[in-house]
Amino acid sequence: MQTEKPPVSSYEPFHIKEKIGDMIKYGRPLTMQFSRRNRDLADEIRRTMTHMYHLAVELEKKYYRKTTTQELDVELEWLRHLVRMAADKECCGPKFAPPLSTHQYEVWARFNNEIGCMLGGYIKSLNR
Question: What whole-number distance in Å separates Cα of residue 111 and Cα of residue 88?
Fold first, then answer.
């Protein structure tokens, strides 16, 4: 008598959510080091990243995904602007260094670009 094999799980991790989680792990400690005068910017960056993660979880579980992907795309664009602002020397004033170094900005921008490419591919697959 042969024993039946348990069914193979069809669950595949949602890669966009994982990538957003990796970005949060990278960015959160950086925002905690922002100075007091940049605390509002740090709070907004953290809030945006958390909302993006929430949207990714929602996207993974929803049946109708088009509006959620659009919301996630808008949040990603907003985060790109916030991170760019955090690295901009002109935003902080002539006497102060920006909260993010050039290297930190480049790494964070790569995360944002990877998420954008993944999201763009996902949107294309939904439109088919």
Answer: 18
For residues 44 and 52, give the distance between their C-alpha atoms in angstroms, rounded to a whole number. Answer: 12
**Cα→Cα distances 32→43, 45, 101, 115, Å:** 9, 11, 14, 22
Neighbouring C-beta atoms of residue 115, cutoff 10 Å: 24
Tokens 């999201």 belong to which residue? 119
**Residue 41, token pair as written in the block:** 């910017």
Find all residues with CB under 8 Å of 50, minimum gap 6, and list them: 24
For 7-55, the pLDDT digits (tens) are 433 344 589 999 999 999 999 999 999 999 999 999 999 999 999 999 9
pLDDT tens digits along 82-118: 999 999 988 877 788 899 999 999 999 999 999 999 9
Angle between helix 39-61 and helix 15-32 axes, rounded to 10 deg: 170
Q: Give the pTM.
A: 0.85
